[in-house]
Specification:
mainly alpha; about 0% strand; flat
């Protein structure tokens, strides 16, 4: 699984799952949309796990937070609880923080190599 080509194939499949989930959301297909949460989030967590020893883990953590927030927001809309969708901002914020940390690490590495 350390092969970048294998990771790329998993990431590409994950994008398909994510698009299917969001298409269900767009089309207001509640049952398929809810079903698609499990594989989409599972793949995000799996990709995060397999990249745990690389700097890319921080981007994959951000993606995982993003998808969790996205799925929560979708459920809020599906179950007519849009008044709670602003709570999706919490995992979005953690994802943003993880992305910022990723770029901070890149900046620190470049600073030491300059």
């Amino acid at each position: 699984m350390k092969n970048n080509l294998s990771i790329r194939k998993i990431e590409n499949l994950h994008i398909v799952l994510w698009l299917l989930k969001d298409t269900c959301w767009l089309m207001e297909w509640k049952v398929p949309g809810i079903i698609m949460i499990t594989p989409t989030v599972s793949f995000a967590f799996f990709i995060t796990y397999i990249t745990r020893k690389t700097d890319d883990v921080y981007i994959n953590i951000a993606i995982s937070f993003w998808i969790v927030a996205n799925a929560y927001w979708m459920c809020c809309e599906f179950f007519n609880h849009v008044e709670y969708k602003f709570y999706a901002g919490i995992p979005f914020a953690f994802g943003l923080a993880s992305t910022a940390y990723f770029y901070f690490l890149k900046w620190k590495k470049n600073e030491h190599h300059s």
